[in-house]
Every structure is written in structure tokens, then in C-alpha cells.
Amino acid sequence: MTTAETNMRKQEPGNVAGAERTSTGKVFVPRVDIAETEDKICLCADLPGVDQDGIDITLEKNVLTIKGEVKPEVPEGYSLVYAEYDIGNFERAFTLSDEIDRDGIEATVNNGVLHLTLPKARHVLSRKISVKSSDGAGNGRESAQSGNAAGTHAAAGTTAG
Predict the structure, then answer these.
(1) Does residue 146 share a domain with residue 88?
(2) Residue 142 is part of which domain span?
(3) For a 10 Å CB count at each end of the chain, is N or C smaller?
(4) Rounded to the nearest 5°, which phi and psi values hold at 157?
């Protein structure tokens, strides 16, 4: 088996979030892409065979848990003779920091791809801080540009010693 084929195989989780599994059958760890913008974090999880009704997302304390249930369909009157891939449910957990606005989390699913949007809390969003002159006469650039050590310290609000 090549390295590429090995990497394509589904991974089975060990012990997700320290919980004991009570259901039978295989449970796989879904592959997830995580992207970040200035104001949110986006997760895209591959959950093939899972529809909207089969997804359960919970947030308890700081742990966001995604569970996906696959309902295998076999045509009536047929039985499975050979399968090239395993069918099983999905489960993955993420520990969230205090930077996430827990009330603003949104989720959508389309064709087995789950999109989670985790907005950042207001207190962690970056903002532009304007700089004002403390002497009132100018913008402070004159002292900093002169190359004079005392002038540079004066522009920074300290005195040279």
C-alpha cells in the first residue's frame, strides 16, 4: 500500500475527550480544515454520508464536540457482498479558548461537508489605536527624526538621563 493510500484511510479515534464509547460500530475522526480571519475562525469538516439530521454539535465548558451519524442504505432485497470502504459514524472534539463568542457559533452542512463559523469575542478583535502628540505643538515626529537621543526619549514620554 502506498503512502498516499495510507493517508486516505479513515482514522479511528482513541478516546475522544476522555469519554467512554457506549455504542457499537466504527467511529472515525473526520478530516477538518481550519481557517482564520480577523473576526472569526472557520472549520470545514468532511462527514461523508451524514445529513443535517445526523449531525450533533455540543458545546460543554470549553469543548466543542462534533458527532455525525451515518445511516447506511442498502437497496431492498439486496445484501452487501463486498465493500471497498468502511461505514461508520464520525466524532471529533476541539477545546476552545476564551477568544470565541460561544453564543455566535453557526453551523451549516452541504453534501456531507460541515461548515462551522466561530466568531471571535468582541474583546479580542483587533482595533486601530490612534497616536496623539503629548506636547500639543506638533505631532512628535520632529524630535524622533532628529536622531538626538534626548529628543527621541522626549517623544516617547521619558526623559534622558
Answers:
(1) no
(2) 129-161
(3) C
(4) 90, 15
